[in-house]
């Protein structure tokens, strides 16, 4: 199916359905990770191309803008999304340097659409972060010199193998000043790194279903996230490859809830709030206030529904056993 979606018409339709699925899942705002790479470019419907990454980015912006306008016209609220520019960690150093340069120019061209930068793909098969350190340091310095904010939001620590290159990626992510860490599954084996991540106010993007499917944990109850939370680390829940795993963010949140007996609605609420607070939206803008207000409104509606739906049955059981 990948080749089919690399045609512009199919990609536009796919993007629309993706956005609709976010709304169905009660998601108000998202930061997505499209993979900008040579073998993942769009073709025109007549088969000509491929088109460059800037064209793909513009198509994405056009579709999101059109969808937001359609939702607003129907009286519904959707805050939109931002793009985390991603390139494969299997890239050569030259390819990575070109990707970082393109990400920088994308941010200049579309300042409100680019959220950050990441290197993606299976850590065991790709290069370790240390290989890209000179390019990433130069990129961060270039951004600072131009007063441009493109945080590093890095996949790392998605492994059960202590001492492996994927394990060491955690050290390099912290040294590089990553603002968020994707997966971070191995953090619990490194108390010093965990404390450093907490002190730096780093948020870990949890992907429980992905970690179960890929064998990092046999069941959600033994997932590392509960130890991370117990140690005061801020976390957010993500879907990783939702389409591939035929799941949604709601499924991941459900797994988080059922995996620990004393995990409750307050924990759910905190995870959702952290996902907003650690996002790359501009918190000085009115849009951020509107997003938080709408989220609180939806949360109150959910709690009211839960009380109406489950409250009578709960009271009946308490009376029966009382």
UniProtKB/TrEMBL annotation:
<protein>
    <recommendedName>
        <fullName>Adenosine deaminase domain-containing protein</fullName>
    </recommendedName>
</protein>
<keyword id="KW-0378">Hydrolase</keyword>
<dbReference type="InterPro" id="IPR001365">
    <property type="entry name" value="A_deaminase_dom"/>
</dbReference>
<dbReference type="GO" id="GO:0004000">
    <property type="term" value="F:adenosine deaminase activity"/>
</dbReference>
<dbReference type="Pfam" id="PF00962">
    <property type="entry name" value="A_deaminase"/>
</dbReference>
<feature type="domain" description="Adenosine deaminase">
    <location>
        <begin position="8"/>
        <end position="285"/>
    </location>
</feature>
<dbReference type="GO" id="GO:0046103">
    <property type="term" value="P:inosine biosynthetic process"/>
</dbReference>
<dbReference type="GO" id="GO:0046872">
    <property type="term" value="F:metal ion binding"/>
</dbReference>
<dbReference type="GO" id="GO:0006154">
    <property type="term" value="P:adenosine catabolic process"/>
</dbReference>
<keyword id="KW-0479">Metal-binding</keyword>
<dbReference type="InterPro" id="IPR032466">
    <property type="entry name" value="Metal_Hydrolase"/>
</dbReference>
<dbReference type="InterPro" id="IPR006330">
    <property type="entry name" value="Ado/ade_deaminase"/>
</dbReference>
């Amino acid at each position: 199916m990948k080749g089919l979606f690399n045609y512009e018409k199919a990609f536009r339709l796919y993007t629309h359905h993706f956005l609709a699925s976010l709304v169905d899942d009660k998601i108000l705002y998202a930061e997505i990770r499209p993979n900008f790479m040579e073998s993942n470019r769009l073709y025109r419907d007549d088969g000509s191309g491929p088109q460059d990454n800037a064209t793909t980015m513009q198509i994405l912006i056009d579709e999101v803008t059109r969808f937001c306008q359609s939702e607003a016209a129907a009286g519904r609220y959707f805050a939109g999304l931002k793009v985390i520019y991603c390139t494969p960690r299997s890239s050569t150093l030259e390819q990575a340097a070109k990707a970082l340069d393109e990400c920088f120019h994308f941010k200049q061209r579309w300042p409100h659409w680019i959220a950050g930068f990441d290197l993606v793909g299976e850590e065991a098969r790709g290069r370790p972060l240390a290989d890209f350190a000179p390019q990433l340091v130069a990129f961060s310095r270039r951004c600072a010199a131009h007063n441009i904010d493109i945080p590093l939001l890095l996949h790392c620590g998605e492994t059960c193998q202590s001492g492996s290159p994927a394990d060491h990626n955690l050290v390099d992510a912290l040294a590089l000043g990553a603002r968020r860490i994707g997966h971070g599954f191995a953090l619990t084996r490194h108390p010093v790194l965990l404390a450093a991540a907490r002190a730096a106010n780093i948020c870990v993007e949890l992907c429980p279903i992905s970690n179960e499917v890929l064998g990092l944990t046999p069941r959600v109850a033994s997932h590392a996230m509960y130890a991370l939370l117990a140690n005061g680390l801020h976390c957010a829940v993500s879907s990783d490859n939702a389409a591939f795993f035929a799941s949604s963010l709601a499924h991941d949140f459900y797994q988080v809830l059922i995996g620990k007996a004393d995990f409750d609605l307050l924990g759910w609420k905190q995870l959702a709030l952290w996902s907003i607070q650690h996002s790359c939206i501009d918190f000085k803008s009115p849009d951020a206030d509107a997003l938080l207000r709408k989220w609180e409104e939806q949360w109150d509606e959910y709690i009211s529904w839960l009380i109406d739906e489950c409250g009578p049955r709960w009271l009946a059981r308490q009376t029966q056993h009382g």
